[in-house]
Amino acid sequence: MKILIVSATEFEIAPMLEHMDNIHRAGGPLINCTYKNLEIDILVTGVGMSATAFYCGKWISDSHELALNVGICGSFNSNLEIGAVVNVYEDCFSELGAEDGETFLTLDDLKLNGVTKIKNNSGAINIEIEKLPKVNGITVNTSHGNEESIKKVVDRFHPIVESMEGVAFMFACENERIPYVQIRAVSNYVEKRNKDKWNMPLAIENLNKKVLEILDSL
User: Fold this and answer.
1) Between 90 and 108, whose confidence is greater?
2) Phi/psi at 147 (nearest 5 deg)?
3) What band does 122 get if pLDDT is binned at 50, 70 and 90?
4) Which CATH number fits domain 2-217: 3.40.50.10380, 3.40.50.300, 2.40.30.170, 3.40.50.1580?
């Protein structure tokens, strides 16, 4: 079975890489390796939607039987513990639209063609994936850290988490018609920026543990 794992940074998947065999860095963002009976392509895209969309479009192929987007995220919901690992089953391009004074206009409002929201119906299901809480998210160019803008985006989309790449990955997989899952671990709450409250090491530890459990179950 051939798997594609997409991450914005190598830092977020470093613990998982320690378990891989036959690692070959093919140049650019691509790392080829194996794990038990799996052939794995790891794509380290860099941060942001544009880089993720470009490299996913370039490297995803019909030889991949499953794609996983793995990384950390911020949570708008304080009931979701720091370090929790989730399946982002629905995501959107939250900034795609137009402002009309205090009103935000979506592409539908503007009567423009385009995709703003994606719900994962790709059929990527197994026992370990099913254990993950399913949440909706938004993908942003600027992580929220202002109380006013946080309130606006929560009122508009009611998101549980946010990332800077998720929906771009989903868009690429939808168009290539391959099963996929966006798996993220909460490193912080979305609030006025205070890194003293973040726990990236815990999020990354839990994220990588879960990804390995999923790979073991395939």
Assistant:
1) 90
2) -60, -40
3) confident
4) 3.40.50.1580
Span 77-83, mean pLDDT?
95
Structure tokens at 55: 């490299």
Q: 182: phi > 0 → left, psi -120 to 50 → alpha, else beta; which?
A: beta
Q: What tens digit of pLDDT does each residue of 6-55 get?
A: 999 999 999 999 999 999 997 789 999 999 999 999 999 999 999 999 99
